[in-house]
Write a structure and sequence with these properties.
- By secondary structure, the chain is of the alpha/beta class.
- It has two domains: about 160 residues, Rossmann fold (3-Layer(aba) Sandwich); about 130 residues, N-(1-d-carboxylethyl)-l-norvaline Dehydrogenase, domain 2.
- Helix content is about 50%, strand content about 10%.
- It has a six-stranded parallel sheet with strand order 3-2-1-4-5-6, sandwiched between helices. A three-stranded mixed sheet has the order 7-8-9.
- Strand 2, helix 2 and strand 3 form a beta-alpha-beta unit.
- Helix 1 packs parallel to helix 6.
Length: about 300
């Protein structure tokens, strides 16, 4: 008889974390969860997850704790704060699913090691839909025995890629991936605005680009699904994209690389953020470019008349 999974902790059950935690529940993992947003824990609580009062409360009851939080400062507080994971009496392994950069990861691994806690660096890529379907790319770095201990659970989220043995290496991999993704989206949106300004059909542009050398994740998925429909529902905010591209450029510049193209793309994300777009979907970036051209990029799906109810 297979051994029943022991109680597992999960901190941060928002857009990404909530979907990953749900997959663990669906695969038979008993969970104890925490989030500062009371509404975020309700769906999982209805499925049987215990709700903890704090990160420390989670770490007092679970040997393995997953964390999925939005920023480096929040991660520091969750791990090192007065009611942080580091003060838990039972936790032995912390798995960081967040995208926070290698410098923070290195800081945390040192502090946790002093308390006998091992950090596994495991950021994910693939968006909310990938988190829900279990098709994320899970980038992992850490001690071999610690990684082996959580490999099956990470496999519930998607495909696991071991990229190194030192926490921080997976963060670098994730940031480089997101630098490519956010830069490609920014450039692709500029291209579509330019094309429509010049009289091209947006749907035809998608077909041509995706059959040629210009195709990328933006032209294959984000633009057809969320931009040409004008739904703007990809599921990741402008603030998150801006944070990721900023962290990536900081890391690369710290290694002596100027990141000329990435820095140019970041200017567009900064512009959207500073115009009040922080909480808007990342695909709304195009709405900050369109006024300069005096056009609106729409596909056939967005041009269809709505049925009256």
């Amino acid at each position: 008889m297979a051994k029943k999974p022991e109680l597992t902790g999960f901190i941060g059950v928002g857009v990404m974390g909530g979907r990953m935690a749900r997959r663990l529940v669906d695969h038979g993992y008993p969970l104890i969860i925490h989030d500062v947003n009371p509404a975020a824990v309700k769906p999982l609580a209805k499925l049987g997850a215990r709700v903890a009062r704090s990160p420390r409360d989670v770490a007092d009851q679970a040997r393995t704790v997953f964390a999925s939080v939005p920023t480096p400062s929040i991660l520091r507080e969750v791990v090192l704060g007065a009611n942080g994971v580091i003060r838990g009496s039972k936790v032995k392994t912390l798995v960081d699913l967040s995208t926070t950069g290698s410098s923070v990861e290195k800081e945390l691994v040192k502090a946790l090691a002093a308390r006998g806690i091992t950090l596994v660096d495991a950021p994910v890529s693939g968006g909310a839909s990938g988190a829900q379907k279990g098709t994320l790319a899970v980038m992992v770095a850490g001690k071999a025995n610690a990684v082996a201990g959580v490999h099956d659970a990470l496999g519930v989220f998607g495909k696991v890629f071991i990229v190194g043995t030192q926490p921080g290496q997976a963060q670098l991999m994730k940031l480089l991936n997101n630098l490519l993704s956010t830069s490609a989206l920014a450039m692709s949106l500029e291209v579509f605005v330019a094309g429509v300004k010049g009289g091209l059909d947006a749907d035809a542009m998608v077909a041509v680009i995706n059959a040629g050398s210009g195709r990328n994740s933006a032209t294959e998925e984000k633009i057809p699904r969320s931009v040409l429909t004008r739904n703007f529902d990809f599921g990741f905010p402008v603030s998150g994209a801006r944070k990721d591209i900023g962290l990536a450029i900081e890391e690369c510049q710290a290694m002596g690389l100027p990141m000329i193209v990435g820095s140019a793309a970041k200017q567009l994300w900064d512009f959207a953020y500073n115009q009040g777009g922080a909480k808007r979907d990342m695909t709304t970036l195009i709405t900050y470019i369109e006024p300069w051209a005096g056009v609106e990029v729409r596909g056939k799906a967005a041009r269809k008349p709505r049925r009256r109810v």
